[in-house]
Hints:
By secondary structure, the chain is an alpha/beta fold. It has helices at residues 14-30, 48-58, 73-83, 103-111, 129-146, 161-169, 177-183, 207-221, 224-252, 261-293, 308-322, and strands at 3-10, 34-41, 62-67, 88-91, 116-123, 157-160, 188-194, 300-303. α1 (14-30) links the parallel β1 and β2. The protein is elongated, with a radius of gyration of 25 Å. Bound molecules: uridine-5'-diphosphate and magnesium ion.
Amino acid sequence: MALLSVVLPAYNEEQNIANTAKVLSGLLEQNAIAYELVFIDDGSKDGTLKEIEKAAAENTHIKGAGFSRNFGKEAAIFAGLELAVGDAVIVMDCDLQHPPQIIPEMWELWQQGAEVVEGVKSSRGRESLGYKLSAGLFYKIMSKLIRMDMSASSDFKLLDRKVVNVLLELPERNTFFRALSFWVGFQTESVQYEVQERQYGESKWSFWSLMKYAIANATSFSTLPLQLVMILGMISIGFSIVLAIQTLVRYLTHTAVEGFTTVILLILIVGGFIMISLGIIGHYIARIYEEVKGRPKYIISSVTDNVAGSVLGAWKRQGERYGEKND
Ligand code: UDP
Ligand code: MG
């Protein structure tokens, strides 16, 4: 019988774990789907890990691991994929904002042969205006950069074992899960869902963390900003040619040269262009530096009793993937 793994990244979600575990296990048992729940504690400062351990002790279908510090949602998702042993894996938020009622539908599509089932937001739920605007801008830019429509995409999706294995084999450390599932291809279906309201706790995203996330992901998926540097350079060259001609004409017609204002302005503009360009190039170099260092995406510091073996397996695989050069 096919097994479904549900991966749930959790950061400071102590109020949600028990409820989410209860809702999900109830729903899956009701639909007669063989399942396991994989909670990943992303270095929470509250009792999330304890709650996961408690849930795992109560229900053998539940397992989990905790990070040594906060590594971010991307890392938590990948750790979950690594720990999951199911034939199909669903990734979803553990605050139940991704409605569990959709899971049987995703499962059905998977049984009919879909290899990726994308959860597509039909509404964004209740969010502040600022959040809505910045998220809107973010998806506009992202969709342009990676040439895929991401406006309604989310981290809520089902992946076939085949796809999970492909994702785990990708050597990059700065991942963008949401876009990677588009990038790998495979036979994709989608289901619509309404974003629910968060019951307990609060969203972990601020405007700035969203902006940082946007820039990191845009540059991890596109080199377009680098081409922007080229365009800036061309603009300033075009400008200087016009200016050179103007100066030459003035020189020939013996018109007096004007004050320093133009010169200062030009220096400022060109200086600005150069600094922006260096900044963009610097950002990419920083990304290369991070990738080259080859550190793992996350460090697991503890696991629930029922998974010690598979975590060792995960570590071994990580070592094989990242440590080849050191042997
Ligand atoms: N999350 C995580 N690590 C982080 C931030 C968030 O694992 O550093 C998890 C969080 O526990 C939740 C999911 O990612 O399960 C989505 O986070 P949140 O609900 O705060 O985001 P929102 O729904 O507001 O976009
Ligand atoms: Mg949420």
